[in-house]
Every structure is written in structure tokens, then in C-alpha cells.
Amino acid sequence: MAERRGSMAGKRAIFSWCLYDWANSAYPTVVTTFVFGAYFITAVAETPESGTAAWGYAVGIAGLAVALFSPVLGAIADRGGRRKPWLAVLTMAGVMATALLWFTRPDSGDIVWALVFVMLSSIAFEFAMVFYNAMLPDLAGSDRVGRVSGWGWSLGYAGGLACLVIALFGFVKTDTPLFGIPTEDAAHVRAVVLLAAAWFALFSLPLFLFTPDRPSTGVGVSRAVREGLATLRATIRNIRNYGAILRFLVARMFYADGLVTLFAVGGIYAAGTFGMDFGEVIQFGIALNVTAGVGSLAFAWADDRIGAKPVIVISLVALIGLGAGALVVESKTAFWVIGMALGVFVGPAQSASRSMMARLAPENLRTEMFGLYALSGKATAFMGPIAFGFATALFDSQRAGMATILVFLVVGLLLLIPVREPPH
């Protein structure tokens, strides 16, 4: 009965939930992937190689923190019932930490400042996703969870695209940046973090206004902490009873690490290996977001028709093949073509993973299970960026660093194949 009620959620509630994807996608697109990351390694760090390694370590440390504490927060929230208060606090923290990146000047003396607030903003962003994702089954129900998840991802890519367009034509590639921002000390480039922070804050508001939350259980904070931790311990002790969930999470642990690392270093790779300047990196990001959004939208209905697992498998096979191509091409044009094709399959792999977890998770443990889902995406997430940074430094080659991503994708695919998806 709970699933049927969830499937009847109003259009405004569902759209407002999806709009949060539009809101928060400005952060990974503008900050960690395409603009600020490239700015950090080319203008702040002493060399692109040392900057790449430091960036990889910082992202890895943030991922480790998310892996350790996401299940704990999820279990506590399940005991309290409501998710939106947690989501509001974490969203605000992410917005503030992102805005503080504005003070990162093109000076190696600001390296520590940049890395600290990249870590803090990344942690807040990922924690928020635990509570956001856990709202999906209540809104969509098992019969529409695939398409609603796909709609959210598609809208997220559109949001990232729109923010990148404004960053490109409003701040970076213009002689007259918006609001009269000067170009001295790369102020017009640094301003994109303020844009991302404002974007995140503004477009997340509809979720808090129009999307319903679970009612409070009436359990106080201290009791919720005690009981949540006890429930989490029991879940971990009895995780073998959730065989399909365990196998799926282990598989996702690897391929999600590959995807996260790809997003974290994509702009850095484009800038360092193919010599793209800030404007070109943003243009590449815009094109990638277009193909990724199209892919997410196209596979949204396929998820509900053929299942989430086939969509993930198809996407991973394509990503592995195309990723191998990206390692060997020499021309910027060829890299553009392969990058656009990669985008088509990145979104469906992520969207279908979210919908598969929504179908697998027991109703009374959903936030906790999405905490474990975050754990599976982050438990080895510190390994991907660190492996990338280590291989780049060891071989003095970003191509060698990128090759480590394929290993995680292949292992994840092999582990996913035996997993049984529940009927829907």
C-alpha cells in the first residue's frame, strides 16, 4: 500500500524533487569537474602534475569521510522519520563552503585554502544526496522509480549545462564579465564558484516548499542517535540476509569509484593533456552535459521496461570501450568525439543505479540503505582519485592516471553481472 501511495505523488512534488538535481549539479559541473578544478591546477598549483595529485588526494579524503559517516546519518534519520531538515542543513553548508572558494587567488599560497573548502563542500554535497535519494521511492513508487530517477538526472545535466553557459559567456570568455567583475587576480574565473553557490541555494528551494517529507516519528534526537546506531549495527551484522543488496553495493563500490573519479578529473585531463584553456574546458563540459542529459532521458523509460541492471551493464560496457579510446587518441577533435559519446552512457549508469537501490531497499530502512549506497560509492572512492594522482605522478603522465579508471569500471561490471534484480 505504501508503494501505491508513493506512486500517486503530485506532479509539482515530483518536479520540485527533480529540480534539486538541477540545483546541485552546478557544484560538480562548475567546481569539481570543469572550471575550478582546471583553474586550480593551471593557476594555483605550482605545476599541473603536482596540482593534479593534490586535487586527487583532497577528493579522496572527502570520499573517505562520506564513506564512514553516510550510513550513520542515514540510520539516525530513519529513526527520526524526517529527511528535509537534514537536507536543508547540509545544502546550506555546501552552499557556504562553495562560496568561500572565491578567496582562492592564483597563488600557490592559497593551495591549502582551496583544498580545505573543496573537501568540505564535497562532503556536504554527498551527505545531502543520501537524504535526497532516500525520498525517491516514497514519491515515485516501484512502478515509476526508474523514469523519475532518470528525469532527475536529465534535469541535473540540464542544470549543469545552463550554469556552464552562464559561466562561459557571463564570466570567463568575455571582455566585460557580469556585475563589472575585474579580470585581475582571475576574479572573473573565481566568480563562477559564487554563481554555483547561488544556483544551488535558489533552485533547491522548491523541494523544501512543495515536496512532502515523511512525518516525524516523535523520537528525540538523542534517542534517534542511539536507536539509529543500534539499527545500523544490526543491519551490518545481518547484511548477509540482504544478499542482492550486498552484491549490488559491492559491484557499485567499484564502478561508481570509476565514474566519480572520471567526473573529478575530466576537466583536469582535458586541460592538461589536450591543452584546453578555461573557455574550451567549459565548452567541452557544455557539450558533454547535452549528450549526458539526452542519454539519461532516453534510458529513463528503458529502466522501467527492461530493468535497471541491463541499463547499467550496457552503460558500463560502452564506457569501458570509449574510455579506452580516450586514452590513445592524440588529437583534440578525436577526444571531443569520444567525450560526447561517453556522455550518453554516464547518466544512465548513475540513474539506473539509484532506481535499482530504491527497488532493493526495505521501506523501513530506506535512508539507512541509501547511506550504505553512499558508502558503496565512497568506500573505495578515495582509492580512485589517489590511484589517479599516484599514477600521474609516478609516470609523469595524465594518460597513465586516466587508465586506472578503467580498472574500476571493469571490476564493477564483472561483479554486477551475477546480481539478481527484483521484479517491478
Structure description:
This protein has a single domain, classed as Growth Hormone, Chain: A (Up-down Bundle), CATH 1.20.1250. The chain is built from 19 helices and no strands. It has helices spanning 2-7, 11-24, 26-34, 36-44, 48-80, 84-100, 111-134, 136-140, 145-172, 187-203, 205-210, 221-237, 243-274, 278-306, 308-328, 332-360, 366-378, 383-395, 398-416.
What's the helix and strand layout?
Elements: H1 2-7, H2 11-24, H3 26-34, H4 36-44, H5 48-80, H6 84-100, H7 111-134, H8 136-140, H9 145-172, H10 187-203, H11 205-210, H12 221-237, H13 243-274, H14 278-306, H15 308-328, H16 332-360, H17 366-378, H18 383-395, H19 398-416
Helix pairs in contact: 2-9, 2-10, 3-9, 3-10, 3-13, 3-14, 4-5, 4-13, 5-7, 5-12, 5-13, 5-17, 5-18, 6-7, 6-10, 7-17, 9-10, 9-14, 9-16, 13-16, 13-17, 13-18, 13-19, 14-15, 14-16, 15-16, 15-19, 18-19
Structural class label:
mainly alpha
Shape: globular
Describe the sheet with the most strands: none
Strand coverage percent: under 5%
**CATH fold category name:** Growth Hormone, Chain: A
What letter string, H or E per element, gives the SSE order?
A: HHHHHHHHHHHHHHHHHHH
Helix content: over 70%
Radius of gyration: 20 Å
What's the end-to-end separation, in Å?
A: 15 Å
Unreliable stretches covering 5 or more consecutive residues = 1-8
CATH architecture: Up-down Bundle
Average pLDDT works out at 83
Number of helices: 19
The tally of strands reads: 0
CATH class: Mainly Alpha
